[in-house]
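Adenylyl-sulfate kinase: structure, please.
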Amino acid sequence: MPTPPTPAASITRAERAVQNRHRGAVLWLTGLSGAGKSTVAQALARRLFEMDCRSYVLDGDQLRSGLCADLGFSDAARSENIRRAGELAALFADAGMIVIGAFISPFAADRARVRALVPDGAFLEVFCQCPLALCEERDVKGLYRRARDGQLAEFTGISSPYEAPDAPDLVLDTAGGSVEDALASLLLLLRERHVTHQA
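Here you go.
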């Protein structure tokens, strides 16, 4: 028996945007471990909540303990991790939310695939730029030390590459800038790209 076609959505993205007073979008924070992605993501989520915007943070560690718990850290597994995260982010954005993804996402091709999942330019790539040495200083989990001691194979920035974005929508200096500086830049980006109407 053939599978019946999926019914068309009864609520459009435009209708959700009117109700929410903002567009659905994916704000994708990428950078090395320790670059400040999660800190910035959570601060932005709080600020958007205070602005009555519907948002949600998808964090790499969070997904690794659940949806992606079956994946390792080979190149193929990292790509699959980001594919799953991207599919989830696209669904949240389609539901009208501002999704804040905080993922190392080391490979440019994987980030490009996520961008392709989100229609009408609603994917915003944000590079959290921070020197490796400072990321190592901030490493409360001791992951960099373990990687340098050979206890963690294929660790991004040490034994596995990180491909920095060539043309991100925004570069955040998470080494010298404050969280408030980052928030101001992110809110301006969301307003300029017509995701939000206030900042």
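Notes: The chain has eight helices and five strands.
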